[in-house]
Amino acid sequence: ISISRARDGHFYADLLVNNVRTEFVIDTGASEIFLSSQDAQKVGISLEKLIYRGTAETANGEVRTARTTLQTLEFSGVVDKNVRVLVSEGQMNISLLGMSYLRLFARFEIIDDTLLLQR
């Protein structure tokens, strides 16, 4: 999978989360996959049923998090099932694709302004 760097310096990717197109920023500084509450609702997760037991440090301070499982997560034709994610109770503009997902790839590297991911 090849992704070009955006003008703001980040790498963005559209994934299918439970068959719903969802935009992520690829964040090697994030340990987990974090869904914004808006994206969680969009993909069929009931926020009222989540239990916010965890916390995470973000650029905006500490936020409470709830663990849940996605039925499917598809990235450029690569489908993973029963993927564990965290839903952030705090305000997030975009969901984060962190290291718990990137570790599933055999290799990822940045060459110039291109992120390459290989399974």
Description:
Strands 2, 3, 4, 5, 6, 7 and 8 form a seven-stranded mixed β-sheet that branches. A three-stranded antiparallel β-sheet has the order 1-10-9, with no helix packed on it. It has helices at residues 37-42, 99-102, and strands at 2-4, 12-17, 20-26, 34-35, 54-58, 61-75, 78-88, 95-97, 107-111, 114-118. It is built from two helices and ten strands, in the order E-E-E-E-H-E-E-E-E-H-E-E. It is mostly beta strands and 119 residues long. The longest helix has 6 residues, at 37-42.
What's the β-strand tally? 10
Our estimate of the beta-strand percent is: over 45%
Largest sheet: 7 strands, mixed
Low-confidence spans: none
Terminal CA distance: 9 Å
Number of helices: 2
The assigned structural class equals mainly beta
Write down the secondary-structure element order: EEEEHEEEEHEE
Mean pLDDT: 94
General shape: globular
